[in-house]
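Note to self: user wants both folds in one dump. Writing first protein now.
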Amino acid sequence: MSVNTEKSMHDGSGITRLGITQEPWLAPEGTMDIVLESLRQLIDYELAVILSFEGKDTLRVRTMKGPLATRRLADFSISLLERRDLALLLAAGEPRLLDTEPGFVDTYAEILDLPEGHSCLAAPLTV
C-alpha cells in the first residue's frame, strides 16, 4: 500500500477494503505514533524519542513514547555543535548504540534521571 502524506489529497471518504477503512494519507504525527507503537511490540523500551533536524545544528523532539516520556521533553532541543557524537552519527546515517562509558553525557541527563547502565540506540531516519 502506498501512503500519501499530503492532507490536500484527503476527501474524507477513506478507502474500504476487506471491511477495513483506511485513510488515503497519514499525517506525520500519526505516522510517528504508529512507528513507535510498532517498535514497542518488538522492544519493551522505557523511552523512545523521534527528533527532527531543525537547520544545520539543531535537533528538536517531535514525539515520544514510553513510561519515561514526560512533558519536559516536549520542547527539548539538542545543539549538534555541543554534541559532536550525534552530528557524526547523523553524517554516517547508520544506527548504533551510544557510548555509555564514564564521561559520557546522556542526551536527556538534564531532564530525566535514567538508571545507570541503561542503553541508548540512535537510528537516523531519512525521508
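First done. Writing the second protein, which came from a different request thread.
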Amino acid sequence: MSNEARSIDDRADDYVLGLLEGSELETFETALITDVSMQNAVSASRERFLELDMTAKPVPASQALWDGIATRLDKVVRGQEAPPVAANNNGLFWRRLALAASAASILLAIGLGWSLQNRPDPLVIAVLLDEKGQAQALVEDFGDRSAKVTLLTDFTVPKDKVMQVWTLPSQEMGPVSLGLLSTSTTALLDGPELPKPRLDQLYEITVEQSGGSPTGRPTGPILVKGFSKAAH
C-alpha cells in the first residue's frame, strides 16, 4: 500500500473517530464531496468501527433517563424550545455503551401518545442518545417502510449539511438510510423495503453533505444513536 493510500486511510479513521478539527476537518470534508477514494476510505472505516460498536451490549435505561425524556417530550408537545445541540463527532462516542430503551418505553409511549393516529402501533422504539448519554431523539419503526422520528432537542446543523437517519438491519446488509431529516420536531420517513425490525437493532442520526451521504453509507459525524426495544 502506498504512503498516499495509508494517509487517506489514517485520515478517514481520524475523521470517523472525531479526531480531525479546525481547518484539517474543513479540508477533509470539502474533499470528501468529490474524492471517491476518500469516500470509500470513510465507508470502510465506518464499517470497521461499526463492528466494535455492535459489541456493546444494551443495558436498561434508568428511571432518571425516562423522567428526562418525559420532561423533554412535554416541552415538544407544548412547543417550548429545547437547548440546542451542536453537530460534533466526539471520539468518545464510539467507546461508550449505547443505552437501550427498556419496557418502560412502552408505558411512556402510551402515556404521551407518540404513535400517529390512524396508523398501526410501531413494532420497535429506539431512544437515541448523544455521547453524554442524554436522550435526544426517538425512533418508532412501523415495519412497513415508515418510521417516525421525534427530536427532543434542537440540533444545530450547518446550512450546507443535513441530518440523515440510519438503521442496521443486519451486519451482512450494513447501514441503510431511512431518509433525510429536517430541523422540524417530528417527521415521518418513508424508507426502503427492509426486513422486519428486530430487537436491539441499531438506529442513528448522522450529519451528512447536502442531499445526503455521497456513498449511500454513513460518512459524517454521529449526533445520536441507540438500540431498539419492542413497542408492545
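Dump finished. Worth passing along: The helical segments are 3-16, 22-32, 36-53, 63-77, 104-112.
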